[in-house]
Amino acid sequence: MMDNTVLVTGASGQLGREVVRALLADGFAVKAATRDASKVPPQQGVTPVTFDYTDPATFAAALEGATGLFLVAPPMDADAPAKLIPFIEKARSAGIGHVVFNSALGMDQNEEAPLRIVERAVMDSGIPYTILRPNFFMENFSTGSISPMIREQNSIFLAAGDGKTSFISTRDIAAVAAAALAGTHAGCEYNLTGPEALDHGQVARMISEATGKQITYQALPEMIMLQGARNLGMPEPMVQYMRGLYAAVRSGDAAVVTDDVKKITGRTPITFDEFANDNAECWG
Questions:
Q1: DSSP secondary-structure letter at 280?
Q2: What is the pTM of this model?
Q3: CATH topology for the 5-137+168-193+255-269 domain
Q4: N or C: where does the chain have the smaller number of CB atoms within 10 Å of the terminal CB?
Q5: How does pLDDT run across 166-222, given as a tens digit for each residue?
Q6: Is the Cβ–Cβ distance between 178 and 28 less than 8 Å?
Q7: pLDDT tens across 191-207, in order?
């Protein structure tokens, strides 16, 4: 089993990098798929491969020699089904033996959600599958879209109200993905969360304690957050996707806590306090 080669889509992204690392640690060979293969740092056991969902000519070479697939959609992409479903069909015909699809928490509650449509395509493909549904990434605060606010303005500006979120580290999602590809998790669906649900005020306090800086949370009206995203150049479909995400946070839908990470990996997921201390230099 451990001689398998896994094709990792989105390999240069926040989650993809961690999945590559986790697979290598578990003895897999990795094909690291990105639109720009030069973004993949050279390392033993990793073969960079150029891949683009919008260019079917890249599919065959990416899949060649792979026995497993870690599948991730472009972030906040309402067109994810149109992009991913042709590739899922190609993966089936190429003989992929197991696909792990990274969806998002709550997608199984809305059959019209883009990621749910992709989930259904994976389930119906005939390829043995595992569906992962993680909550918001902790890394959004350290290296993602929220990090510049913290570094430059000492604040978190979001329309999250006082809703709580069971943030999860990409390290824990990656550990589950690697375990799913190595073990007997075909046909399983996992809802992945951190060990506690926090509001953004609590997150700001933990980052403050880790950095020694005074970080605050400013709860924005929804329309102010969305207009700010537009002003930064975010396309309108992504703006509307963001609207839905933070509406779910405000309503409490992101506060659920599960034990799936521990059940699969054998260890408790990283707490936000641990994460903040480990990444304090990101906010310097």
A1: G
A2: 0.96
A3: Rossmann fold (3.40.50)
A4: C
A5: 999 999 999 999 999 998 899 999 999 999 999 999 999 999 999 999 999 999 999
A6: yes
A7: 999 999 999 999 999 99
